[in-house]
């Protein structure tokens, strides 16, 4: 079986000679700190050997619950936000039909919808409308069990599901994925008798896609979670502490991006794809790297573009704007489908020079042309190549990014496993909403608003 590959040659050329090699001892120390649990945030290293710790029995248990939802629901709503949703969405959208929400006729799989990741009233009202008269189920995912966006949405969905299916039947199609003991989601699941899965204490949200947080929705969507985990297991081996620095794709990626950041002033990393199906992979990656590295007034800003779409919007900036960016392109070698471009006798559009070529051949030339142009324009380019867009290689990609993120955060000398910054908006929101327990904050914020008015 092949592995995903990393090509950093078009990025390293922007660095002084020997820069990447100069990280070797620090990378080794970071790898060992992760392995020995001696780094900051060591309470959250459960993801490190998670793939090889997943047993077949556990996967069978997840699959059995997924099969129940699949047999009883035409729609399953995944309620969750941040790390409690992005990984599942990334894999499901990468593997699913681009028009899944329209292709309803011969559906073998339930339609998977995502909610609990915003507080848009229109979004929720439209979701409620859509679910009317549908046999729907809910996977309520929240590690803390108290996240407002998710909890608010879950209350709406629970009531609607019970109203439409009756409390007893609703109980069979609502599943909780949450902490073992604490939080409202746990209390509710235990009281109502929902099937539930535990998010391990030592796995943080953004590193949790290979727990039931990601595995259950992915299995419900009809994808092969065994193959996903196998890919992650193989990448766990390929990026382990015993793999030499120069041969380890995760440590190479970590070192190159830190080199670009500290030695070449590249403050923004754009993850780009040439397959619209990878859009949410980049969204997942943005959270993983943004929450892990953006702290202590440091960190590469993670951005994302879908090419060639965004070449017609962001392309100008990337080619010609401030030279503070580098690009990481995720490329898929072979598409799953084959579509040849037809010849046309009249050739009115002048495209006969493409006749007989696969559409992907055009896409690949767009990719190569973009790479050459952007490198010429001063944008370092890292290329990650996936042989195919399937469960196995997505499992590899997920673990590759996780491992590299842990190492990269430690090279940056931050704790990659906490996210203190995300609490600030919540505190203000709770104060503004007069949440019980926030009386002092409510008073302070009202005074501040009065002063600012
Ligand atoms: O990575 C993280 O820890 C966060 O993004 C969380 O996943 C997110 O805030 C959702 O939290 P919870 O699962 O507790 O609802």
UniProtKB/TrEMBL annotation:
InterPro entries according to UniProt: G6P_Isomerase (IPR001672), Phosphoglucose_isomerase_CS (IPR018189), SIS_dom_sf (IPR046348), SIS_PGI_1 (IPR035476), SIS_PGI_2 (IPR035482)
Reaction catalyzed: alpha-D-glucose 6-phosphate = beta-D-fructose 6-phosphate
Annotated metabolic or biological route of this protein: Carbohydrate degradation; glycolysis; D-glyceraldehyde 3-phosphate and glycerone phosphate from D-glucose: step 2/4; Carbohydrate biosynthesis; gluconeogenesis
Alphabetical UniProt keywords: Cytoplasm, Gluconeogenesis, Glycolysis, Isomerase
GO cellular component: cytosol
Compartment list: Cytoplasm
Catalytic residues (UniProt): 291 (proton donor), 426
Top enzyme category: isomerase
Domain of life: Bacteria
GO molecular function: carbohydrate derivative binding; glucose-6-phosphate isomerase activity; monosaccharide binding
PROSITE patterns: P_GLUCOSE_ISOMERASE_1, P_GLUCOSE_ISOMERASE_3
GO biological process, one term: gluconeogenesis
EC number annotated for this UniProt entry: 5.3.1.9
Function description: Catalyzes the reversible isomerization of glucose-6-phosphate to fructose-6-phosphate.
Entry-linked PANTHER family: GLUCOSE-6-PHOSPHATE ISOMERASE
Family per record: Belongs to the GPI family.
Protein name: Glucose-6-phosphate isomerase
Species: Prevotella dentalis (strain ATCC 49559 / DSM 3688 / JCM 13448 / NCTC 12043 / ES 2772)
